[in-house]
Structure prediction request, 35 residues.
Amino acid sequence: MPEAKSGTCYLYILYSSRGDRYYTGISSDPERRLI
Prediction:
């Protein structure tokens, strides 16, 4: 379902927007956890 993916992306972007260096492991890209 695209909805589920959208929610995951939303969380990922939320963390990125906040300026946090760490990311949630829920994102589809675990390698991008540490940028």
In short: The mean pLDDT is 54. DSSP finds one helix and no strands in the chain. The longest helix spans residues 2-18. Residues 23 and 32 are 8 Å apart (CA to CA).
